[in-house]
Write a structure and sequence with these properties.
This protein is mainly α. Helix content is 59%, strand content 2%. Strands 1-2 form a two-stranded antiparallel ribbon. α2 packs across α4, α4 runs antiparallel to α5 and α5 crosses α7. The chain starts with a helix and ends in a 6-residue tail after the last strand.
């Protein structure tokens, strides 16, 4: 069975549902990103210096053995924390990798909304967009995030996170 990347290359009938994808990414950035940050003990300011040398790793007990019957719970906790940290890095890098031009202010929209928790109406005012125009740009930004996140998931070795794209069924029902 071909993976999703191979399918995108091989199948011209794959069509991304931009509204559903944008909604999926919005939920991911609103809830999962916050969960990963909390679990890893990171703030956005910690992520702003991401170059893979500034983030500290949790310290494990030298023996690797906890007080719970000789079972090493520290290692599994350490792995979960490291995975959450890697997910945060991938999300941050994805946002910072999005286009940020005059007609494509995607990085600005995503940074302000999900890194600085600015409300949409303030971002909209800052960019000088009307309601409908702003929400079209935000939907485009969220879809670009989904596209670019695939690269950064692999870069930070977290390919197990699901593809954020939502696909429409084509004419053949696939």
């Amino acid at each position: 069975m071909a993976d999703r990347a191979e399918q995108m290359t091989l199948d011209d009938n794959l069509e991304v549902d931009s509204k559903a994808t944008a909604n999926n990414v919005r939920n991911f950035l609103t809830f999962k990103f916050e969960h990963f940050q909390n679990y890893a003990g990171l703030n956005v300011s910690d992520l702003s210096v991401v170059d893979d040398s500034h983030l500290s790793s949790p310290k494990m007990d030298a023996s690797g053995v906890s007080l719970h019957g000789g079972i090493n719970h520290t290692e599994s906790s350490f792995n979960r924390i490291m995975e959450a940290e890697q997910a945060c890095k991938a999300i941050y890098k994805t946002i910072k990798n999005c286009r940020n031009g005059g007609r494509t202010p995607y990085q600005k929209i995503l940074s302000e909304a999900y890194l600085h928790n600015m409300e949409d109406y303030k971002i909209q005012q800052e960019l000088g967009y009307e309601d409908s125009q702003y929400y079209i740009k935000k939907r485009q930004a969220l879809c670009e995030f989904a596209d670019r996140f695939e690269k950064w998931k692999d870069w930070y070795s977290i390919p197990y996170l699901k593809d954020l794209h939502i696909y429409r069924k084509n004419k053949n029902g696939v």
